[in-house]
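Researcher: Here's a chain I'd like modeled. Treat it as a single chain, no partners, no ligands.
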Amino acid sequence: MRSSNPVFSRRGFSRDNGYAGFNAQQPQAGGPVVGNDPYTQGAGNPYATNPYAPADTQLGAGPQAPARPNVMTIDDVVARTAMTLGTVVVTAVLSWVLLPVDEANIGKSYGIAIGAALVAIVLSLIQAFKRKPVPALILAYAAFEGVFLGVISSAVSTYISPGTVMQAVLGTMCVFAGVLIAYKTRLIRVNRRFYGFVMAAAMGFILLMVVNLLFAVIGGGDGLGFRSGGLGILFGVIGILLGACFLALDFKQVEDGIAYGAPREESWLAAFGLTLTLVWIYLEMLRLLSILNGND
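Model: Modeled as a single isolated chain. Structure tokens:
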């Protein structure tokens, strides 16, 4: 199954060196059965025939079979995600301090922030099209993304409300924790129907935002009004809900990768994808809270 996350949906985890990727779309006959969810059973799980999978997930493997080396674990994913998000946070704090958005420096700071955002987009696209994760590229993306977030957050704190940024951070953390709990308790069940619904909603949402941006560039103001007032609040909530759905899809792919023996280096790709999703949620949360606090 492909995730809605742009990194995962480009190609999924590596197919090199005998490892299957996440992007297999057709069931494979003869696969082993793992769990009770037919979508995650061997018939639909591309890792089912992976010779490098942990012993207890392979058909016919006894409980004493030795563990396979160099496979991704949850500790790997947590460590790499902490490094990537940590880089975002550190550079965001530094840009907040070193790139003030007062009247004397706002033009320069905004210019640097926009440049950093463009570089981050280019780096993320380069990584998305590479066959293997490149840690230096991922950390560089995180650094430039942090510069952009730091300046934008500083501007919101300065011109709208000092507490908005902290509210957005806490809100993002709550969404992450809530989706993780809902996923682990199976309140959220990720299957093909869920995936199709999320992808259709995401494409519609992005299309509307692009149209709104074009109208804003041509006519000025907020374009069609999707980012202000009542419509802005509605679309902010929709954006956050979509981000939560992206997280569920990403959790599913990380879980499958661990269960079926993705190579350890792919933990960097998992960290990259999770970081992209969390940045999405934070920006939507910041935008929503800016509208709410700006109307006070």
